[in-house]
Amino acid sequence: MRSLIPIAAATLALPAAAQVRAVPTQPDSEAGALRGVEVILINEGSAAVAAEGPRTIEVTAADGTRLILERLPAPAATIQPGSFAKARYVPTGYAARPAYKPLPGAPLPEGVGTAWTGDSPATAPRTPDTGERETPTASGTRSGFLDRFTPHEPVYGAFGLGDSGGKLQVSFAFQPIGGESAFSHLRFAYTQTMFWRLDLPSGPFTHTTYSPEVYVERAIDPSATIGLGWRHDSNGEGDATSIDSNRIFLRATKAFDLGDGWRAEVTPQAWVYVGKQGVAPDLDRYWGNGSLGLALVKPDSLKLALTLRGSPDSGRGAAELFASWPLARIDDDLGFYLFAQGFTGYGEALDDHRRRATHARIGIALTR
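RESULT FIELD:
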């Protein structure tokens, strides 16, 4: 059995007598920690506490590597005095996953115990829920394999003055096959971006871009991920005005720990165009063949993300900046972000790619 590493007790925002001690299992290495590190949460106080534990902990792997781990979202539960619960932690940057919320009346998940038995708790660690999840609504019960869905590009609605209008975007990624096989790296994604001209009398949606993707993605190590795939961008119009861009892309992200919970991310991407592009054979001169993403983020705090793209041959390109801050910092009941977006350059809208524009907008984001 792997050893448990005692760390300092973490006092939660509850009565002073309620105190939780977090005891992590020692991972073998960084790669081992990426699969999740089990942490035992022991309530040593005299009152029940939320089964949350500290947001981040520091451990030293068996090979001597120092790791900063972040808590994965978990179902709401409490730990009675003298009892324990289990939590899972992963290296910082890999914990932003949707929390599992059981239906009312559902049994508590595995990992919440009633007695501490030393270094070997009686219950096994909770495994991720990959089954169908049902949600009762006024229009009937809805269900899906929700753990298969993850955020992709930011989901937001932002609004500006004049011809900046509104910019709305929905985006998600889906993992169709789980497990440890090669097929588990396959992803489908869809993004739709809409431009809403609120400054015009009828408030029309003047541009819409539809962007499905198919790609494979794999973590190289706890701080780096690489992806290879195909993306289709279309304005959804008929033959006379259709713009259909098909690109094969290669992208990667590398994260750097800056300390105090902050990290930086660098995301280079390159692509080649394949097939016809409808009435926009010159799209590559405005979109270019590559981009560079730079991000500075602290979980549960500020995130700044800048994307630069362009064509060295034509000298045309664009820059887009996102800034977001979680409103849960003000009230835990608020599950979205204050969001700002700015763009300058060519190609913000697919079917208006030849026009140079500069826009600033502010609104809210559901993911970032």
